[in-house]
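Hey, resending since the last one bounced:
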Amino acid sequence: MRHLRRFLAVLTLAVLPLGAPAQDAGIEAVLDAQGDLIEESSRRTIEPAIAALTESGLPQAREVLRRWQERELYRRISDGEFFFAQEAGDDTLALTVIATGESAGEGSEDDFTEIRPNAGIRAMIQSALAQFRLQDEDITLRRRAVESIARSPEPEHLAMLRNVIPAEPDWGLKARMERLERLLTVQFGETDAERIEAIESFGADTAREVRAALTPVVATRRMASADGPAEGDNVARNLVPGSADLSVEEAYGLLVSRGLAPERIDRAARRDALVANIVDGQVGGVPVAALDTQEARDDAYAALAAEGIVPATALESEIEEIVDAHAFYDVYTEPSPQVTEAAQDAIDGIAFSLEAQQYVDLGLDALSLASIYFLAAIGLAITFGVMGVINMAHGEFIMLGAFTGWLVQTVVPNYTISLIVALPLAFAVAFTAGVALERLVIRHLYHRPLETLLATFGISIAIQQLVKNVFGAQAKPLTPPDWLAGSLVINDIIGISYLRIGIFGMALVFLGLLLFVLNRTRLGLEVRAVTQNPRMAASMGINPGRINMLTFGLGSGIAGIAGVAIGMFAQVTSEIGQNYIVQSFMTVVIGGVGNIWGTLAGASLIGLLQKGIEDFNPSNTLAAQTYMILFVILFIQFRPKGIVAPKGRAAGD
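The structure tokens again:
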């Protein structure tokens, strides 16, 4: 039908006066020939008019289509001539001659008919305009045309693209056109060979547009018949009633919808029908007294149905027999088996690739979480490994760092500069607080782990309450710079925020700095000496008290920097540190007390485990943390010293 209409449109143009081509006849002749169709504006009959304008080759055709789409096309009632028009005042139109673009003065709205295309016709006009825009000198318009075709593809777009691709000067847009041409070939290609070639060209491409193009090719409809599939049916699979894919009830319902079986009527409705048709103590020739069995009631209903008094229905005993007498199967809407096989193979490959990419995306999330846990736990690993101190106030040093970052942002509005200032300042604040805590409390409680735990726990609560009293309980914003906003999107599946990439980079930087300090500096040498044997280190002139103080301050300072990083994606409150204290201790214990590489391994394992459990139950992160704790308990039963066994004082303890 579509091709017939186009043929008629071309034929109409061909028989214009004097047999002149459309270009010579002018836009007025084209509009005059198609005027009645344009004025009627019916989606069922408008296609020849749009085709005539599109294929006329006239320079004004594009503007006519555009103004028509924008409802600025009018037809004069007296002589049927078309004009562009816009409202000029009360019941007045400003008219423009279509052929020349010159003003035609003004006219009364009562003398003109406004051409009002509906949404369907506007979509068809938009498709027609795409052909003009594909050849426009403005690359922006060409890009818009390509994306318009991608959103609403039609069979005629395939030929349009193939015509303009060789002449497209921009290589990026040309590549996009070529990809879109292959997508359209999958759906509208003329031969099976070219469609299969287009399908195979995408390989395991997981883009949404590829999946959207392949899905209709393997779409199926469910069929039922007494004789099985007809010759030429492209059968996707045969179905067995009573299986997981098709229950007996669903199979019978399909037969009813196809008119192959009578509609079922439930027992209550049949009982009501029997009661309503009691005549002289009988129902369908069966005495009422004899209706004490289901079989007798079925016979009575069947007699009524045979007389046409009640609608026919299948009896319970007949349903399985009726279902067994029919075949059930899914048929592809695409008639070519070769095309559907190629499409299904491509979809299977895409499904495998999607699953693999989902694991990659999960791994990136786990790596991001591990970097956060590493930053939060590395300071604790240093203090715990060197000093053997269970510091329950470690989370509060994270909190102090986060609040320091917020305070800096209130003074320095530039987020990049404020971040540069906040990082060393957070280290200094947390370092000072850590040194003060070590000098005032912890140094008096060495070798008394229970008292140390209780003291730091009490100090933790006191710091939280103090901060809450000073800054309030409301969450504070710690905004990352603009260059950390957004995400790095690899494809539709894999992506990671720039903020998390920044935190991962920060974790790597601190890993490198700590390794350098511990292995290449005098302080690192003394820390390792005190860690392995404090008495021997003291006999060599090293002051263990000074090393303990600096070590505790260093661990606390690193926690402060971690607080700035954590505060940029979490709410800055007085409880922010408590959200990470449990994971920090688990990271240290499972990785190996006092070892940087062990902390890194522990953070990686904890992050991967938590994200893996969350993947099974994304809506319940609390359950993931519970299972994670259970895993840690089981892990330390088999490897109590962690992934990397500690040395020195921690090993002895």
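The radius of gyration is 39 Å.

Sorry for the duplicate.
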